[in-house]
Amino acid sequence: MSDFAGMEDLLQDFLVEAGDLLSEVDNKLVDLERAPDDTALLNEIFRGFHTIKGGAGFLAASHLVELCHLTENLFDKLRNGELVVSQGTMDVILSATAGVRDMFGYLEQGTQPPAANPDLIENLRLALAGELDAEGAAAETPAADAPAAAAPAATGGPDWGQLHQLVTGVPATSSATAAPAGPAKTELIDVPPAQPKEPPEQIIKAAIGRRATDKPGYSGPSGRREGEKQRDNSIRVDTVRLDQVLNLSGEIGLTKNRLNALRSQILNGDNDNDTLHALDVAVSQLDLLVSDLQNAVMKTRMQPIGRLFQKYPRIARDLARNLGKDVELVLEGEETEIDKTMIEDLSDPIIHLIRNAVDHGVEGKDERKANGKSTKSVLRLSARQEGDHIIIMVADDGRGMNAEKLRASALSKGLITDEEANTMDERQSYNLVFLPGFSTAGQISDVSGRGVGMDVVRTNIQKLNGAIDIKSSAGQGTSFIISLPLTLAILPVLLVRLGEQPLAVPLSMVREILPIEADEVQEVGGRATMVVRGEVLPILPLANLLGWPQENQPEYGVLMQTAEQSFILAIDSFAGREDAVIKSLDDFRPNGVAGVTTLSNGQIVLILDMKELLGGPGERHGVPRAELIKQPLLAA
What we know:
The chain is α+β, with helices and mostly antiparallel strands and 636 residues long. The protein has 22 helices and 18 strands.
């Protein structure tokens, strides 16, 4: 049973508002680290913790109130000049925000959060007393106090002997427990350089939150299984947009009444020119109003992408510090709006790109200094709208990518052949980083080397009907450019035909439509090809991809482009362009079919998933020329 029975609405509102507030606090903390004397920032962060504490008080979450209260008191002393912002103080505060996120995880499960980590509470008390040095270590205590520190259980600290036994299964000796008791009690959460660095997964969890079930020893309800996404189904909508929807609904109601009146007139035999003209005007007005209503409803799903971006500065800061680098993440275009359903699906790809940029793209401080660069690297995360697409870019000012090195690495791993390596241009070489198993890291580490991160990025972007491209310049940096549709609810498609059967292909992949002339079709490597502006492109019959018999010789080709290849899709004819409202096939979805849509004449049309039809990068499609063109090739 939930600990918040009867308070579910209040709890949900608190989690949404406090989560946004804590993300803003995290961003301001990263700014505060760069400007420790900014009084306005200190005041804003103080108010953030004060607001979260107030909401937690209404929910009777006493441990969350205690943690926020101590942190709030620390900021009160910082803003009043009683203490100064040091690296040690920042580490304690950032650890406190991570602790607050952990408690949010318990609240999401409907349970009261337990007490915060005793070390964290102790470090906050030490920071309040001014007993932390600049690096976060506790100030030295007189030797006479050492015996008292050797008894942590008596002073409320952790029982190190019991902890040792739980972890190792072996009873701790007196020497094993006495040594860490004194310093460990007053040591900060960040570890000394001699110890292993914090894994990036922990850094990311601390920055964007985790469920209570992620904690060792948790015995409460398990919630969702590992790998399942917990989606936030709520959405914030500006009342101005809701008013627009309401007004359009009223206008449509009036037009409907007008159409009903005209219908009655026509049924009564009054079908003169004036009546027919009035009917035509009413239908045109209804068409315009429905289009406006559709656009207004779509806008209610749009959310500022800044809500997604705001959690990344903390991640970049912590990863960079963990790797001994100095990286500043600059956000641009946070007001750009994107479909709410896409925001959560973009979270993981952008985390991978930021992680890749901090680890691979950005050089260390010594290397940058040797190359005449500033020791501080600048990583840019920007968003903008171009037409009916959203462009998201992650750009660093690091060492750039080496196309030759990428080809050699892919060749050594058996991901490409010698022939493919020799024919690859620079852009195709950059795209090798998206192949499963590809990595340029010399050894596997906590951050990279397994060759899975960039593959995940491309897969997730393609699921959103988007594309990703790479631009790089040696010694100047690399940019990853993501192009996404404004919304997933409506998909622009090109209607093509095989015989009399219409099919829809995504218009975003279409570059041009051209006729297939028999004398222009050549055979290269056993496959029919055509030369378009100097580029030899394979011809892939749509019937062949679908596994249908090729009854007619294709008359037209659709030049299509994916991230991996360009090709000509051979079809019988085409029927124009449509803005398709996608209906998913939940119970049964054939291979290569993304969904269905209904045309204006009521006909149901399959929307093809071209990436699924084409298969993986290593699969070869196409047919010999003789199978595609019945007419023999004339000798030159």
